[in-house]
């Protein structure tokens, strides 16, 4: 009939055509029979609990190592159920809050500095440095590893003893500090603080940056203080970054003001340590022995960008751009001439003296900023002596990654693909190399390596 509907099936189906009157044709709405899945709706998981645990790991975005850790915790609970006393998120939060009593927590300090007739306020988040020091010194688990007296290490070469150094307490500085503090208190002991400063992205989206400070104790051996466990480095502060103002960034007054804000934060951070460093303080250490401790900054670890903030030089554009010596800018490549070392004591005299017509000229010649350095307040500390050589940026990234490796690639490119393949397969994949502990392996070869972290670049340089 007119308007009838015919449904014709593919010939391979073996089904006959079907016909419907227009008013009767509609797609059938059938109810899904859930009873068919009630016996095991969580397939392919063996049990519902398996599915719920797997679903939880997905929702929590746990990676493989965290999932493995979670199952280890499950097994521990099954083996000793009485050991798990937490029952809710409130329990967990309460215990975490009580744990803060054992470690110094962050506090907020407002740093105010006037510029162009207007007070600018910055937030400085930090832990009290002396409180952190006490948490390390008074820990009974760390007490056996603390070294309180200077040592001289020497190796006999067949004719004489040759001195060498391996830890802070074997360094000349540590011995000098112990000699100085023993004049104040015969039982005084050096407390070597190691500070690492760097600029990093603090937010996931890369919109917030900050100068963060990591502290370590130089009285602990390297494997402890550089470890990730007890006695390792701890973030103790976030120095605010001063954003540039339109039209002001390159003005000397603005640049000096930025540095003044930086060091005002450091002054707040170091204030108590600086006070104690002059006369010492008696502390009951983790082994129940009282010692009079004299804190000082033994090492300042920083890249060049942070170094010129810490020592208040004028950077690469200054007439003397080195943070340690007074080599002129035009003779940086002259490695045969030995130039005078910078001195914190000399800098203090120049900066703190009454303004004179020649002051700015003298500071400019030395590449110094007209700003008081907060680290001058800490006794037995010379910021220029404390600076460490920046192996990562000078040797690994600067010399190897940006100079040596490109030259190697150019030579191999001239030699052809066969030479490139042989280098990658024979040397970089370590087929013919002896075992080397913790050396990173580059599965796809070194010549194609484009981006990696500093440790891997250091391993590549070893190869």
Description of the molecule:
The chain is α+β, with helices and mostly antiparallel strands. Helices cover 36% and strands 17% of the residues. The protein is built from 14 helices and 11 strands. Strands 3-4-9-8-7-11-10 form a 7-stranded mixed β-sheet. Strands 1-2 form a two-stranded antiparallel sheet. Strands 5-6 form a two-stranded antiparallel sheet. Strand 3 and strand 4 form a beta hairpin. Helix 12 (391-415) crosses helix 13 (417-428) and helix 12 packs across helix 14. It is extended, with a radius of gyration of 33 Å. The model has no long low-confidence stretch (mean pLDDT 83).
Give structural attributes.
seven-stranded mixed β-sheet, 14 helices, alpha+beta, 463 residues, two-stranded antiparallel ribbon, 11 strands
